[in-house]
């Protein structure tokens, strides 16, 4: 705080062009002129923030003296330049941005000659695009300060005030005299394919054809600001517009007047305000437009005349001004022509009501109000993100004495592979050796706890000396023995058939989806389906389930990233682990308590109760325990002194099975060796003999989540590579 006042927050606006035109007057002298444009109009009204605008100045400045002098001159306008040479601008902006990104983002597709050209030019344009973005990032990083924010309405007061200026009032009077006795229609657009200028002019021609009495009573003024004049597509558009305008003027014009006044240039701010003020009907026929601020500016300048706005339904402004405007489909020439007639003949009271609605919106939702709301919400988002980050476990750099990891089912380089190959992937070969070493250690017990069925666990882990817990722990066996069940006796499964019918129905109607019928649950997986369509189908499926087969059933629906699972109530990994430990200790005849636990997983929130089950800081383990606070990050986890004193160790590591859905991340548990590094759990689980099988202390329990997310685990492993490294070091420590 300065002088008892809070510091003013800085707003950084990063755009391709600065809102300033720069002309060099000498070696170190520049003439600057503030530009008029949509984004400029939107941000000029922000008064509550110290705004800085970062962008290209629009000129090539290769010499250091010129760059320094221009930087100083722009600083007075609160602008910071990014210096791009002509080649980068041509390749990055005219090439990649305008020839590739812009058409695709506006549903136009690439120009035919570009598609037929060599792809080498595309690659060079993309390389320039990357270099330009890096140059922008470097400048932003150089000027960024802690607390800065990166961020549309207009500054309506600026337009309203301009109408009172003597220069503007004089221009208004001249325009009224020039077009006396005629209704004025106005279009202000960039000469661009998406602005729909040909469609607008053709609709006006149709109106004149069908309404001959209006031919000498109305005039269309079309301001077409030239853009990208060196591009063939735009040159063709210019010729097309000129041809249509000439044909219509030749057909309906007279010696003293023509129906269309077409200008291939921009107007200054004051002249534009005057033109807005005398216009009876504004015509916006964009074929695709993000917002279109021309409609806002027109409404702001119509306080006295209360003209009519005809607005394309494909413009973003239609969402906010649609109630007061006449919405049209610009491709429907007949509809637009009819709307022109309706607007010109609209009664005064209807014009008043329509204008009032739009004027209230434009003057209320100004650029300053937008900026204040935007920055306020942005700050709230930062605070919320920080709160969420506090619930993300800290990363762990190394573990002295042990290290464990398992790998995901993608190839080593992380490249996308085809669905069939991915579904056939088995246990990673680099994992087999360390896993075998851990399984062969007599003091270590490995448990793979998975949502997958028994056959898949047998296929992938049958060769190891470990324990397998299938279907979230409902089935259990040692690889040296037979499968047994840990299911509660009162587990009802009479809902399975009806749910199966629903899953079959949606599988047939969702390409590349499949469902798995298990003994205690059903899973519908749309991992390989189209993302958006899969999500829509999953929402529809949930409605079918809740209103049908599971409306009165004792089941839970668990939603994964791209899966829907229906399982019996209470079937979670955390709920099953106590029964699993009891069975393991009973069958292995373990006499000493388990005093070290390592648990690694990539679970859905529903199954993260396994982490809290082992937490010694909780008074009693139970399913769905709320998250506990993670301990402070450590650089290394030192072997516990009691490691070699005869205690038993259990390690639980999560394996992402290649066949399982995201909610089926297996969890492998393993006993520690003699170098204690797991937290202790004070809670006792009574087995057949009634003995205590867990005696954990906090410093001897380690829980890891794989991937950055909110989790009840204590620590974070960023990727499967980290997990693999951890397991390998863990196995190596057994030999020391």
From TrEMBL:
GO CC annotation terms, alphabetical: cytosol
GO MF entries: alpha,alpha-trehalose-phosphate synthase (UDP-forming) activity; trehalose-phosphatase activity
Pfam families: Glyco_transf_20, Trehalose_PPase
Source superkingdom: Eukaryota
One example of a Gene Ontology biological process annotation: trehalose biosynthetic process
Cited InterPro entries: Glyco_trans_20, HAD-like_sf, Trehalose_PPase
Polar residues bias locations: 623-633
Location of the region described as Disordered in the Swiss-Prot/TrEMBL record: 622-642
UniProt-recorded name of the protein: Uncharacterized protein
Origin species: Daucus carota subsp. sativus
């Amino acid at each position: 705080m300065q002088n008892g006042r809070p510091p003013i927050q800085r707003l950084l606006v990063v755009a391709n062009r600065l809102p300033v035109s720069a002309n060099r007057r000498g070696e170190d002298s520049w003439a600057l002129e503030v530009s008029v444009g949509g984004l400029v109009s939107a941000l000029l009204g922000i008064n509550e923030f110290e705004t800085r605008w970062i962008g290209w100045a629009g000129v090539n400045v290769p010499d250091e003296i010129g760059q320094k002098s221009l930087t100083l001159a722009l600083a007075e306008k609160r602008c910071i330049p990014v210096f791009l040479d002509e080649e980068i601008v041509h390749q990055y902006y005219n090439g990649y941005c305008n020839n590739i990104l812009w058409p695709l983002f506006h549903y136009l597709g690439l120009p035919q000659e570009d598609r037929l050209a060599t792809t080498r030019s595309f690659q060079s344009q993309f390389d320039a695009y990357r270099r330009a973005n890096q140059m922008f990032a470097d400048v932003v990083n150089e000027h960024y300060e802690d607390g800065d924010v990166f961020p549309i309405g207009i500054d309506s007061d600026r337009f309203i005030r301009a109408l009172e200026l003597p220069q503007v009032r004089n221009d208004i009077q001249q325009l009224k005299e020039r077009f006396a006795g005629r209704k004025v229609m106005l279009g202000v657009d960039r000469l661009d394919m998406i602005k729909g200028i040909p469609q607008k002019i053709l609709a006006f021609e149709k109106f004149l054809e069908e309404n001959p009495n209006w031919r000498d009573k109305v005039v269309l003024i079309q301001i077409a600001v030239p853009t990208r004049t060196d591009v063939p597509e735009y040159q063709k558009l210019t010729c097309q517009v000129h041809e249509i305008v000439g044909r219509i003027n030749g057909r309906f014009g007279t010696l003293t007047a023509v129906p269309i006044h077409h200008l291939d240039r921009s107007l200054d701010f004051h002249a534009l305000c005057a033109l807005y003020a005398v216009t009876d009907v504004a015509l916006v026929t964009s074929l695709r437009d993000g917002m279109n601020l021309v409609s806002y500016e027109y409404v702001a300048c119509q306080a006295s005349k209360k003209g009519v706005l005809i607005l394309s339904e494909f413009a973003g402004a239609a969402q906010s001004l649609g109630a007061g405007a006449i919405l049209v489909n610009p491709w429907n020439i007949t509809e637009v022509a009819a709307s022109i007639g309706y607007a010109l003949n609209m009664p005064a009271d209807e014009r008043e009501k329509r204008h009032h609605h739009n004027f209230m919106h434009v003057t209320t939702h100004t650029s300053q109000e937008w900026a204040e709301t935007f920055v306020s919400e942005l700050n709230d988002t930062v605070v919320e993100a920080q709160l969420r980050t506090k619930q993300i476990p800290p990363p762990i750099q190394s573990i002295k004495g042990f290290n464990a990891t398992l790998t995901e089912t993608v190839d080593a380089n992380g490249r996308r592979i085809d669905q069939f190959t991915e579904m056939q992937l088995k246990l990673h070969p680099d994992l087999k050796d360390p896993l075998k070493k851990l399984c062969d250690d007599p003091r270590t017990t490995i448990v793979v706890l998975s949502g997958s069925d028994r056959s898949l666990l047998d296929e992938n882990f049958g060769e190891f000396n470990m324990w397998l817990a299938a279907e979230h722990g409902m089935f259990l066996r040692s690889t040296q023995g037979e499968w047994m069940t840990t299911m509660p006796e009162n587990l009802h499964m009479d809902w399975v058939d009806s749910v199966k019918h629903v899953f079959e129905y949606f599988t047939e109607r969702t390409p590349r989806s499949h469902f798995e019928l298990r003994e205690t649950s059903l899973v519908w997986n749309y991992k390989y389906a189209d993302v958006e369509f899969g999500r829509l189908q999953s929402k529809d499926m949930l409605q079918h389930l809740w209103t049908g087969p599971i409306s009165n059933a004792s089941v839970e629906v668990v939603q994964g990233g791209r899966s829907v699972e229906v399982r019996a109530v209470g079937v979670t990994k955390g709920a099953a682990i106590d029964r699993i430990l009891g069975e393991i200790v009973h069958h292995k005849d373990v006499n000493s308590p388990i005093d070290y636990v390592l648990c690694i997983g990539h679970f859905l929130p529903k199954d993260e109760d396994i982490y809290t089950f082992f937490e010694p800081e909780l008074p009693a383990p139970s399913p769905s325990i709320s998250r506990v606070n993670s301990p402070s990050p450590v650089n290394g986890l030192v072997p516990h002194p009691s490691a070699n004193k005869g205690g038993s160790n259990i390690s639980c590591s999560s394996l992402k099975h290649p066949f399982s859905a995201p909610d089926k991340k297996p969890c492998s548990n393993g006993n520690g060796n003699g170098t204690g590094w797991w937290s202790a759990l004070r809670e006792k689980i009574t087995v057949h003999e009634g003995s205590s099988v867990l005696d954990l202390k906090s410093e001897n329990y380690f829980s890891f989540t794989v991937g950055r997310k909110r989790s009840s685990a204590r620590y974070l492993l960023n990727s499967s590579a980290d997990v693999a490294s951890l397991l390998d070091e863990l196995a190596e420590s057994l030999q020391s």
